[in-house]
Amino acid sequence: MTATLAPTQPPVVVRATTGATGPTNKRSTLSTVVLLVGAAYCLLPVAWVLVASTKSASELFSTFTFTPSTHLWENIQDLSAYRGGLFWRWMANTALYAGVGALLSVIVSAMAGFGLAKFTFAGKKAIFNLILAGVLVPGVVLAIPQYLLLAQVGLTNTYWSVLLPSIISPYGIYLARIYSAASVPDDVLEAARTDGAGEARIFTRIAVPMMVPGLVTVFLFQFVAIWNNFMLPYIMLGNDRLFPITVGLSGLLNQGASQPAMYTAVITGALLSIIPLVALFLLLQRYWQVDLAAGAVKA
Amino acid sequence: MTVQTPPRARVRRRGRFAPYVYLAPAMTLFTLFLALPIGYAIYLSFRTVKVSGLGLGKGARTEVWAGFDNYVRSLTDPDFIASVVRVGFYGLVLVPTMLGLALLFALLLDSRRTRARGFSRVSIFLPYAVPAVIASLLWGFLYLPRVSPFYYVFDKIGWDAPDILSSQWVLFAIANIGLWGGVGFNMIVIYTALKAIPTELYEAARLDGASEVAIALRIKIPVVTPSLILTFLFSMIATLQVFAEPMTLKPLTNTISSTWSPLMKVYRDAFTRDDIYSAAATSVIIAVATFALSFGFLRLVQRRAFSQENS
Amino acid sequence: MRLHPGIRVAAVVAATALLAAGCSSSGDDDTSSTPSAGSTEKAEKVDLTFWTWAPGMDEVVAAWNAANPDIQVTVNKQDGGDPAVTKLLTAIKAGSGAPDLMQTEYQKIPTLVAADALADISGSVDPSIAGHFADGTWQSVTLGSDAVYGIPQDSGPMEFYYREDIFKKYDLQVPTTWAEYADVATKLHEADPKAYLGTFSATDAGWFTGLTQQAGASWWGINGDAWSVDIDSAASQKVASYWGDLVEKGVIDNKPMYTPEWNAALNDGTQAGWVSAIWAPGVLQGNAADTQGKWRMAPMPQWNAGDNATGNWGGSATSVTSQSTHVEAATKFATWMNTSQEAVNILVAKGGLYPADLPAQAEALSAPPAFFPNQPDFYTTATDIAKSVQPFTYGPNVNVAFSAYNDEFGKAAESKKASAFLTALTAMQTATVDDLKNSGFTVDE
User: Who contacts C30 (Cβ-Cβ below 8 Å, separation ≥6)?
Assistant: First the structure.
């Protein structure tokens, strides 16, 4: 039922058995093979990037794709040396945008989700629908108007110009609402209110701890979304020392007609930029749960 | 503002402003960064710029009211109509395939008889970590016949494989990138829902000797239908907004025009043609169409998705 | 607060980061007042921002900053070409966020002037500067008026590059006319069906423009207060159907340049020639370093034997934007960067640019590019060729025309039909004229 989101157990241990317990407990090669084919398909470009980043620039276009070479360290050094270590600055920027942005987004989403899930008030449906409608508006459309509006207050080309618009996440609010509904029982809230606790205390001391696994998921999703975002920082930032990796690497590719694209640098940079996210995935696997329809299933 | 307290209110009178306080940060940011820009874009869609004389030097350009001109031009633009049809077909190709595979993988992950589940789950989810721009570049290298390992192998075995970037196949090439990037995420969504199913539901079926496949078809899939519906909705919206993949592949081939997808047309108008007014009008059209398509879904789904709360 | 330990850590990180973000300065805030022109007091420090994508800028700027402590320049490297222009135009529209200095490609200058993005520096610039540049080049920054919208930096006269070793292998003669070029292409492709003498690139509008420029076309023109558009002129049609013919016959490839595929082809000789511009050595070095010394540069094939004409592909000026509050200082820097021997030497060495400044050329171009050790008179030949660049006028909607080129010629190249190439040209003409009219320009038909 809602065992998936119980805060005190690791969600993976939902049921002791995830499959057959009876006599049909044999291993199925077919299903294993199908999954492995899927895994291979998904890993293929990653494997390509790994191999390609070991090649020097001249080998990149003259050797067979999957023949590895030995220049990975050189490529990393060249990339690090580019314009005085700018690539690592981009990495740091990206970590900042994604880390701080996701954190602020979680706080805002948690509050909004809780408010929507646990209260009845005028305009609730309208507000929620309005927020969800935000999902429908693509970044490309918003980019220029957001720039023009931020320019009025002189905030363009700063860290804030990328952070502030990243905080509002309709999808995060949607998820937070579901998690609030599923993991914070009304009677606990009622009891706290009867005891005279103020709303702030109720929220921070009671509700949030119960919602934490779900909030970590919201954090992770928003982190990845901001990490991979291209359009917003592209428009907002003119100072290349503020770029995140996506914009920085695209710049290495688009050098204009009279310069060669720096493919080796881009490929090495792409590899290095994937690693933190992969590490995040591997370390926080149990938080990658997206229960879009929690509670729709009742025992 | 007065709040009517319904008979079964869960809020004490003194906390009646509490929900608004909780929503305040979100609503403020929403207004500033979503509502205002959208409003501004709508305003721009009714304007245009006119030049006087040669148009060089100061004061040669003025913004004027344009009425519905921008909308009419967009709606009657054959390129735009073509892009809408194309993206519709793209969605028809991509979304069922992606969700079908996501469902299949999720079911397999949920079956005890499958081995290497952990490894497969992480691997299939991995593409989610790769931004669309990078993913398209990587797949570009895998598509271009001269540098692709696939065509190298095809060549060796003597198969004259069609160029996947030719006009016949390029839509599938782009769809593949979308599939690669999205199947893992959707798989996790469905898998989460599957894991939430109580075992009691199929203990009985198993004792009766039902096969795993039958259990999947008869019990599991119907139970996770709400999740399937929601992922369908979100995938559909994302598909209609396809932009990064065709944009990144465009310089590599002749077969992707600058108006391949509706959003690319918006980008071209706003950024290449410096005509933000036309871009705004097209964006409004796209947003309204997406909203109309999603509206029915949202209504249908809200009740099933939020049965946990009392609202 | 019983927060998950991970969130606690994240909160600390976030707090630190927010502090850091708050302390970081945005790129183009000025921290001092404008020096008054002509005053004898010591000028206060001026900070200028410079948006550019040409390589080597860091070194040039470092040299300037060392010698001019009162005018400090910061380089912000942008995506090359269109994206940078878009960002600049957005900033101009917004009223803030534009840099002081901008690298402006010649074909984009009318667009930028039309958007009121560039400052007229005729008041701050040394009048004798005009004599440093060829007439055509100087006209690109004045647009035929008294105003000056930038200082020319480099230019891109076009030549024909070819693989000497492959020509020797198949006993091919260097073509001097386009008719000969067609013959050589046919001969090469017959000898090696995988090889091509070149490719028709539907993604490089600048390249095609240069070709029509050589044939005598000028796509825009000014008649009093009206613009005229002549994209489908006889000269352009000649060029379009010539290449369409070659693509249809299959002796010239139809794939875009600057793709991984094209890079691979440069490396293994399946692209045995490249009609390109003077900055080609840098690109070849970056994409096909192993073929160093195997290429040779020759003048472009001509339409009539004995003619001497070429086109221009690329090249930019350095302009001061209309939002800059330090026009004097910025002009001073731009002038130094593009006309002083010291700066031009660095630009050539690090950026592989072909400087537009005539007096500085001799010393800066004394040695051939590293990629052409086999051609010691590379730059002597190039300078001769540069003198034969034909005139060409760019209009206020170059982006529209170039975007139409991508779409229309993409279709044509893919279809491999010569007739489609002419259709594409007409479609470009229509799209460009329509756009001008829609924007309210008066168009001479």
Answer: C46, C47, C325, C326
